[in-house]
Amino acid sequence: MRSKTALEENISVGEILATVANPITSNGRKYRGLEVTGKDLELLQIVADPKFNVDAITNKHLQKVLGGLPWANGLVGRSLSGRISRHLRLLGEHGIIKKLPNQHRYMLTSKGKLLTTALNQFLGANLSDLSKLAA
C-alpha cells in the first residue's frame, strides 16, 4: 500500500530514476549506478514481474527467465548464475531488493516497486498522451 501512496505524490520519473543512477559506496566497495533504460532494463522488468510478489525472487528463477535473452550474453550454468548473483547484489545495494533472512530469496522493496512501476509506466506511455500532459 505504501508504494501506491508514493505513486500519488508529485514525484517526477526523473527524480525516481536519479536515485539509482548514481554510483554508491557501501562497506568500502563501489557499486556502479544502474542504467535503467539501458543494460539493466531487462533485469528490472523481470524482477518487477508480479509472480515474484507471491513467490520471492531466486537466482534459479532468474536463470530460467533470463537464459535465452540478450541480457545473458550467451552465458549458461555457473557463468550465468554468477552474473545474476552480481546483479542481485547491485540491486540490493541500491535498495531495490532485499534478501530474506536465512534464505536465498529476495523481495522487491517499496523503493523497488516505485522504481519499476514508474519505469514501466514511462516506457509504456503513448507519445500523444505525454504531449497532451505537457501542454
| CATH architectural label | Orthogonal Bundle
| Anisotropy-based shape | globular
CATH superfamily: Winged helix-like DNA-binding domain superfamily/Winged helix DNA-binding domain
The class by helix and strand makeup works out as mainly alpha
By CATH reckoning, the class would read: Mainly Alpha
Element-by-element helix/strand order: HHEEHHHHEEHH
What's the structural blueprint in terms of helices and strands?
Blueprint: H1 2-8, H2 13-21, E1 24-26, E2 29-31, H3 41-47, H4 51-54, H5 59-66, H6 77-93, E3 97-99, E4 106-108, H7 110-124, H8 127-134
Helix pairs in contact: 1-7, 5-6
Give a brief rundown of this model:
The chain has 135 residues and is mainly α.
Task: Describe what you observe in this structure.
- This protein has 135 residues and is mainly alpha-helical.
- It has one domain (2-121): Orthogonal Bundle (Arc Repressor Mutant, subunit A), CATH 1.10.10.10.
- Helix content is 56%, strand content 9%.
- The protein contains eight helices and four strands.
- Strands 1-2 form a two-stranded antiparallel sheet. A two-stranded antiparallel sheet has the order 3-4.
- Helix 1 crosses helix 7 and helix 5 (59-66) packs across helix 6 (77-93).
